[in-house]
Amino acid sequence: MAIKATSTRTRTAQKPLRSGCGPQTTAREVLAGCDLTAKIAIVTGGSSGVGLATTRALAEAGATVVVPARPPAKARTALVGIARVELETLELMDPAAIDAFAGRFLATGRQLDMRINNAGIMAPPLQRDARGYAAQFATNH
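Given the sequence above, the corresponding structure tokens read:
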């Protein structure tokens, strides 16, 4: 397949990764046979949807999973029965809350092995954070 260059930079054709994973592959399947004992992961949005499945799979593989959430009560209910999960409070629209969360984690002295930025919102009404960023940008990035 020929690729037409649209700039002076050289373009490289995309090639399949041949990872053995595809659109139907689950988090458990990806982690099958992995021992994540003593590893620390942070999974934003880790208490619902794909994030919850990721949290479960990482914990089942032995990782300690820190799940920052807003609101924590709802997240606590979703995370019941999952071993090695630590619930934290975090509001991604609040820069001070982000700094406080990071400070609490750093104060533990633990190494962070994985960070999975899964939390996100889509097409909310226009709202801005303290920095002036739109809610979707502030939360998702």
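The longest strand covers residues 64-69. Try to locate this feature in the token string yourself.
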